[in-house]
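Please go through the protein record below and explain what the tokens say about the fold. Record follows.
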Amino acid sequence: MLKSIRSCTYVILICGMFFGRQALAQQPTKLTLQLDQPGHPSSPVLYGLMTEEINYSYDGGIYAELIRNRSFKDNAKNPDHWSLIKGVADSSAIVLDNKHPVNEALTECLKLNLVTDGKNTGLANDGFWGIPVFPSTNYQGSFYAMTDGNNAGPITVSIESTDGKSMFATANVTRVSGLWKKFSFNLNTTASVTPTADTRFVIRPSTKGNYWFTLVSLFPPTYQNTANGNRRDIMQLLASMAPKFLRLPGGNYLEGNMFSIRYNWKKTLGPIDERPGHQGTWGYRSSDGMGLLEYLDWCEDLQMEPWATP
């Protein structure tokens, strides 16, 4: 008898819930928005940015460096993204060299054996899908160089079209000697230049001999003119979002496929010629030009707080 009463009670409760919901579902729903009244207070730092290094989003992306494989470490067998410009009868040649390190970080260089004087022979870098050229723009460049010649003439550096028919900017570097030395230069385009990325960066010594180069660098104007900084166009886009924080330096970027090639933030400190770089997790190297200091500069430029990836 008790079981029958309980069963009837359960049936009544279930039916009541069902028909009650049916009745509620048939009633119209009213939503009132009180836009003239403040809502619940929220933290001002809930909206921000997260950075993740993938598909060249640092080197070749937000980091403004234009030279690809600037320290010749991307491939131990070939100078990827570098080529030798020469005539048909010219026997000049290039080869990777690890016997003449600049320091413990710059262990690789590119050796050019130039066999004739005053020709068009030189080294060309294709950049990250070209070297973007704009009118009335100053590009700041540098490289380490040395030669075995006693009377090395000036070295011409330039930004030119991929076919070599158009010259957009040029400068000369002098006094290259038998000892490693860092040289700096400026390339300036004219107001009449048409924007293009069908370009290359070229280094042309003027006298024959052996030349060594490493840490070849070229920067366009950066956001807020920050040294070793970021691209203006991407940073302006991020600034328009008014972010309050930057989560850095990115998940997979920290891991590495092996512990020995993980992201080691201590090796990203100091001048770029003291940063060895490391193998990234997506099949290409990171120069570590964007190191811990550059992350903090990024935050200062956009007036946001740094949040480290846990």
